[in-house]
Specification:
The protein has helices at residues 4-9, 21-27, 36-42, 49-62, 66-86, 105-121, 137-148, 161-169, 179-189, 201-216, 230-235, 246-254, 279-288, 290-320; strands spanning 13-17, 31-33, 93-96, 129-134, 153-158, 174-177, 221-224, 241-244. By secondary structure, it is an alpha/beta fold. The termini are far apart.
């Protein structure tokens, strides 16, 4: 019997949820996705030191204020890491826009275009890059414009059905609904200490979104993310893509049990219906979902904190150079 990981790969594209180059080289996923938290962890390794040095040097050549040079350096570091990752995988890499721009459509557009320009300057085919943007109303509007320009987007920090529906209507290439963080909220607020995998609120959320997309002919890719255990992954076998941490990849590799497909486009059905989603409807539905409201805000704060810590690390390196 082949491992559950090998079985999963026959029905779902497996994506590595890490910025660790060694881990990506080991697991050889189809795609990879990073965020400030993952890059911060990876930047502590010696493998990233040459990239940090180069990012700082590029920022100095760019000029501008110290604050501007710092944002250039961290963007360049993300691009250099993305380039290195793309040398190891056949597919796509996601690179995230600064979370502090989550409510700034114009700022998100400017930063996304700069990231793509940096990739172009590094000789990377930008069709292999997804720009990762928070699934706020402003972020979704930015993604809609970027998709029209041929820049594909990964809408992240997605917790609610209205976010998913709005992303599909905007023509986003891919969404990353956060399974584990949804579970975290329900464990903290339900009085329960566990959920069986088939009742896991994060699993149910992604399954609902997947069925809605497939039943209505939306082309947006569904990529489950932020898993807490392999049971969640197994219940989403057949989802378009799943981004999985190295630790959970190892658990799946070590398990020789049978993995049954749970999601299939041919079996998709839904009772969900939405007309055109405007800002008023989006904000009202978001406000009605306490879990999604809290987890989106928490996610933006966490990514911002890690972005600031990453900038502090780059600043210290620049001063020491």
């Amino acid at each position: 019997m082949t491992s559950k990981l090998d079985q999963l790969k026959t029905m779902t594209t497996v994506v590595a949820d890490t910025g660790d180059i060694d881990a990506i080289a080991k697991w050889r996923p189809e795609d990879a996705t990073t965020n400030p938290s993952l890059l911060l962890k990876a930047a502590a390794s010696e493998a990233y030191r040459p990239m940090l040095d180069k990012a700082v040097a590029e920022a100095r050549r760019h000029g501008g204020s110290d604050a501007e040079q710092l944002t250039v350096a961290t963007d360049m570091l993300a691009v250099l890491a993305g380039r290195e990752i793309l040398n190891l995988i056949p597919g796509l890499v996601s690179t995230e826009v600064d979370a502090r721009l989550s409510f700034d459509t114009a700022g998100t557009l400017e930063r996304a275009r700069r990231l793509i320009d940096f990739y172009d300057r590094q000789g990377v085919d930008s069709s292999r890059v997804l720009i990762k943007i928070a699934s706020t109303w402003e972020g979704i509007r930015a993604a809609e414009q970027l998709e029209k320009e041929g820049i594909r987007c990964n809408l992240t920090l997605l917790f609610s059905f209205i976010q998913a529906a709005a992303c599909a209507q905007a023509g986003a290439h891919l969404i990353s609904p956060f399974v584990g963080r949804i579970l975290d909220w329900h464990l903290a607020n339900s009085g329960r200490d566990s959920f069986p995998a088939h009742e896991d609120p994060g699993v149910l959320s992604v399954s609902r979104i997947y069925n809605y997309y497939k039943a209505n002919g939306f082309n947006t890719v569904v990529m489950g993310a932020s898993f807490r255990n392999t049971g969640e992954i197994e219940m989403l076998a057949g989802c378009d893509k799943l981004t999985i941490s190295p630790a959970l990849l190892q658990e799946l590799q070590d398990d020789a049990g049978t993995l049954d497909r749970q999601l299939h486009p041919g079996n998709a059905n839904t009772s969900d219906r939405f007309g055109s989603i405007d800002e008023k409807l989006f904000r009202w539905e978001s406000n009605e979902d306490a879990m999604a409201t809290e987890k989106l805000a928490d996610g933006i704060r966490r990514f911002t904190a890690d972005q600031i810590e990453l900038e502090n690390r780059v600043r210290q390196l620049a001063r020491a150079a």
